[in-house]
């Protein structure tokens, strides 16, 4: 005990910092050499906190610290030398035993001779009032080794009084809070405040985004007024909002303890620290204490071409429904992000037409300057021979997680040029609108390219004369959702004809409620009640839906309810179904509707007993305390029993965020002549038309046409073919999160979360004059793979944890109408196929020499298929239960 007391008294301030002394931070005693032990360890798991289930490593060493110089003008101005010795590396999980990748290897073999020599070279630290003023090391040392030294040196920065300040250390310029106690000083670093240059991006929509939480606490232990040890712990936890099984946690710890002191070198005389440093060794140079970026060398990695050749068979059209296709797509996107333009072009130019569309998906999804240049050089928009490839490129741009301003400039430039296809020209403008919205969501509305794109959309819509151009710009505005475009939408909604008016109204439907002001609702009410002109049923019902979903007033709800009974027969039934759906599903307008229904003149049998086949229904696909997934289907028929519009929507909600997962709208008009029926009011002169429009993950796609005109209609009716028309097909990078972390221990960590889809949405509208029957079919096939990967890299050793999930699912909606008599018979089905759900976990540790350990787990479940209710008379929720099928675990060397 006496010996320990003497040691503590010799170790003044921290590493002998006196809490009661005159120093404001750590201060070392003159002519003493301090012997300390130091360790930094890191482990990865899924947040369960069980060390035996984790992977990671520990780097341990002895540390010598000596005071070289103290300013004659004040004790708080010091230059200290820190030397790392006797380095060792071991598993953080001691249960690894014979499977340890470090077993039988000395530090030189593990770390590398050059790295070890650099680690042993001393560093100098200039402290003023306990804060780092300068950090000095040797030139051209490996960055990863310098970062480890920075991590150790940062522990010497502290203050002895409570308070909040900003400090610069290995983590960057960070806000820190000190809490001084009698036996300890606690430093809490706000990691989210740290300013440090690191690459990264994320998906802007929080439904598909990643939530993370980071903490950093350093405790300086004090005994008998002296600091005797430093304990630091930093944690980073992340989870995918959409799927909570994709999680990970990094725990990084540092421990520095005093063991003994002995006589050291005498202080160097002098007034200027620069002269002292030069006298110690002229090769010392000042470098930032902030951690620097390094990339681990990939030894023996195959070229991009070889990687492509190894996976291209999985991306054949026949294999796209398999999860392996999406897994390889995601892996190849990662490889493309490090590839050069020439490498990418070489593959594009030599690939055959069957696999080329999937390759275009991957190259576009990479979202790097090289991949963008390569794909733009490869595609010829003036030619109509590669329309499929051009369309796949444009849709991949629309779904981009972090589009660049260069991409938007390129599309604007292409739009101003010539095209081999009018459809591609229209798609370019639609995707420009989608990109504008993404930029504005990320506070990029004032970027030069975004400003130009907004002028192009709004100016084009104002000046457009042709119906085709008006529709094109309206579709772009429907994606961009510019507040300044609302007056133009109102103009076309009220004064436009048919499809133009309907499109403008559906564009208004996508705006957030705060933008649907009283002035906007006045116009929509005029449209619904036809105060100025006759409108089609599709336009009127959409206008009413916007009003009812935007904080409607008492009189607005009352007037809409009073109109029921005065409308065309099927429109009566449709509006009644909309109101009943609002009440049943407890939508925001339900309270106001209930208030209005207290009036007997409104709530009576005559009004609420209207017959018809039109319907509206909203239900839950999935519901939990933090999230919900809903579907809705509304169908409007004409008075003759022919489909006028079917509208199916799927929304995903997580807390206060929402994602419009999909919308498929099938519209038909002017078909009454087929069965010699009388058109409804305002629809006597409509051309025969049927088509489909879709929104996918908040992006409006280019509508497709089944037929247009009477002659085209008759050719389809008389044709025996009923092949579905594809709305969108391809591979989509839906979730894309990349984050590089500088741990305060000096280690580098990366968090990557990618989610991909192989998707095929198609629809068909079939007629049979013989059976007097029409059938609408919408089919969704989706294969989804999500991969979360976290790694911690010291350049010579790396640990990683990968969690993934995959499924192959299908959803089909079929509506059959027999109109041989009235009331006509309607059968509606929405079925979800049985779907496998597989989860994987891979943990590994690997040396730069190639030796490694890996552990794998797999769990498979089966999600039963089910039918969803589509009528209020059958509102029981579709329940499907996961049934465990298979679990397996394996581990070993590689």
TrEMBL record:
Listed PROSITE patterns: VITELLOGENIN (PS51211)
Boundaries of every Vitellogenin domain copy: 28-659
Record field: catalytic activity: a cholesterol ester(in) = a cholesterol ester(out); a 1,2-diacyl-sn-glycero-3-phosphoethanolamine(in) = a 1,2-diacyl-sn-glycero-3-phosphoethanolamine(out); a 1,2-diacyl-sn-glycero-3-phosphocholine(in) = a 1,2-diacyl-sn-glycero-3-phosphocholine(out); a triacyl-sn-glycerol(in) = a triacyl-sn-glycerol(out)
Keywords: Disulfide bond, Endoplasmic reticulum, Lipid transport, Signal, Transport
Compartments it resides in: Endoplasmic reticulum
InterPro entries documented for this protein: Lipid_transp_b-sht_shell (IPR015819), Lipovitellin_superhlx_dom (IPR011030), MTP_lip-bd (IPR045811), MTTP (IPR039988), Vitellinogen_b-sht_N (IPR015816), Vitellogenin_N (IPR001747)
Signal peptide span: 1-17
Biological function: Catalyzes the transport of triglyceride, cholesteryl ester, and phospholipid between phospholipid surfaces. Required for the assembly and secretion of plasma lipoproteins that contain apolipoprotein B. May be involved in regulating cholesteryl ester biosynthesis in cells that produce lipoproteins.
Protein known as: Microsomal triglyceride transfer protein large subunit
């Amino acid at each position: 005990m006496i010996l320990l007391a003497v040691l503590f008294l010799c170790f003044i301030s921290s590493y002998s910092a006196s809490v009661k002394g005159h120093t404001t931070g750590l201060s070392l005693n003159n002519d003493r050499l301090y012997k300390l032990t130091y360790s930094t360890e890191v482990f990865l798991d899924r947040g369960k906190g069980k060390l035996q289930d984790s992977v990671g490593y520990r780097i341990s060493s002895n540390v010598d610290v000596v005071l070289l110089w103290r300013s004659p003008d004040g004790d708080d101005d010091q230059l200290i030398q820190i030397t790392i010795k006797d380095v060792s590396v071991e598993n953080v999980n001691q249960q690894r035993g014979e499977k340890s990748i470090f077993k039988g290897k000395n530090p030189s073999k593990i770390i590398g001779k050059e790295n070890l020599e650099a680690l042993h070279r001393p560093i100098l630290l200039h402290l003023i009032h306990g804060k780092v003023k300068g950090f000095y090391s040797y030139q051209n040392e490996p960055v990863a080794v310098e970062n480890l030294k920075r991590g150790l040196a940062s522990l010497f920065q502290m203050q002895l009084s409570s308070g909040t300040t900003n400090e610069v250390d290995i983590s960057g310029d960070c806000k820190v809070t000190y809490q001084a106690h009698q036996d300890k000083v606690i430093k809490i670093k706000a990691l989210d405040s740290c300013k440090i240059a690191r690459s990264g991006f994320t998906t802007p929509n929080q439904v598909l985004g990643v939530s993370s939480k980071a903490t950093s606490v350093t405790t300086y232990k004090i005994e008998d007024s002296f600091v005797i040890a430093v304990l630091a712990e930093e944690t980073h936890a992340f989870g995918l909002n959409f799927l909570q099984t994709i999680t990970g946690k990094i725990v990084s710890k540092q421990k520095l303890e005093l063991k003994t002191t002995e006589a050291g070198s005498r202080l160097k005389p002098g007034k200027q620290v620069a002269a002292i440093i030069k006298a110690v060794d002229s090769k010392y140079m000042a470098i930032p204490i902030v951690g620097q970026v390094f990339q681990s060398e990939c030894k023996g990695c195959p070229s991009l071409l070889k990687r492509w050749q190894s996976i291209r068979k999985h991306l054949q059209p026949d294999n796209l429904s398999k999860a392996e296709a999406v897994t390889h797509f995601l892996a190849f996107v990662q490889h493309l992000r490090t590839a050069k333009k020439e490498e990418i072009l070489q593959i594009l130019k030599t690939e055959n037409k069957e696999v080329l569309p999937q390759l275009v998906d991957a190259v576009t999804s990479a979202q790097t300057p090289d991949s963008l240049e390569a794909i733009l050089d490869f595609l010829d928009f003036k030619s109509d021979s590669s329309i499929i490839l051009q369309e796949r490129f444009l849709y991949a741009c629309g779904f981009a997680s972090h589009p660049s301003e260069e991409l938007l400039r390129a599309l604007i430039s292409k739009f101003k040029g010539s095209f081999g296809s009018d459809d591609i020209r229209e798609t370019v403008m639609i995707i420009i609108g989608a990109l504008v919205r993404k930029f504005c969501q990320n506070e990029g509305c004032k970027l030069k390219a975004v400003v130009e794109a907004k002028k192009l959309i709004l100016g084009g819509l104002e000046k457009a004369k042709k119906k085709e151009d008006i529709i094109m710009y309206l579709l772009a505005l429907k994606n961009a959702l510019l507040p300044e475009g609302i007056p133009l939408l109102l103009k076309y909604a009220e004064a436009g004809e048919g499809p133009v008016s309907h499109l403008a109204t559906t564009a208004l439907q996508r705006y957030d409620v705060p933008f649907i002001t009283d002035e906007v609702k006045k116009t929509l009410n005029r449209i619904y009640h036809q105060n100025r002109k006759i409108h089609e049923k599709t336009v009127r019902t959409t206008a009413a839906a916007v009003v009812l979903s935007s904080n409607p007033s008492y009189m607005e709800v009352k007037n809409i309810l009073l109109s029921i009974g005065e409308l065309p027969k099927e429109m009566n039934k449709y509006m009644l179904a909309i109101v009943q759906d609002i009440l049943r599903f407890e939508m925001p307008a339900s309270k106001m509707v209930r208030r209005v229904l207290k009036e007997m003149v409104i709530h009576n049998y005559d009004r609420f007993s209207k017959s018809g086949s039109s319907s509206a229904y909203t239900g839950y696909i999935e519901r939990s305390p933090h999230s919900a997934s809903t579907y809705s289907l509304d169908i409007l028929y004409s008075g003759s029993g022919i489909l006028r519009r079917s509208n199916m929507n799927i929304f995903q909600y997580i807390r206060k965020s929402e994602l419009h997962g999909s919308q498929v709208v099938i519209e038909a008009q002017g078909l009454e002549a087929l069965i010699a029926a009388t058109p409804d009011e305002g629809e006597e002169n409509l051309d025969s038309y049927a088509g489909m429009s879709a929104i996918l993950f908040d992006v409006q796609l280019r509508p497709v046409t089944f037929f247009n005109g009477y002659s085209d209609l008759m050719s389809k009716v008389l044709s025996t073919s009923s092949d579905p028309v594809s709305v969108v097909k391809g591979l989509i990078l839906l979730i894309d999160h990349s984050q590089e972390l500088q741990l305060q221990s000096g280690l580098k960590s990366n968090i990557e979360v990618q989610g991909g889809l192989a998707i095929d949405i198609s629809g068909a509208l079939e007629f049979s004059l013989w059976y007097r029957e029409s059938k609408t079919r919408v089919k969704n096939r989706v294969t989804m793979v999500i991969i979360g990967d976290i790694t911690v890299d010291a350049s010579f050793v790396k640990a990683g944890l990968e969690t993934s999930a995959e499924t192959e699912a299908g959803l089909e909606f079929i509506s059959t109408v027999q109109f041989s008599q009235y009331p006509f018979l309607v059968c509606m089905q929405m079925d979800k196929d049985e779907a496998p759900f597989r989860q994987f976990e891979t943990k590994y540790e690997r040396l730069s020499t190639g030796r490694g350990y890996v552990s794998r787990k797999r769990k498979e479940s089966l999600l039963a298929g089910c039918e969803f209710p589509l009528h209020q008379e059958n509102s029981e929720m579709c329940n499907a239960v996961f049934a465990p099928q298979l679990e397996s675990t394996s581990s070993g060397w590689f």
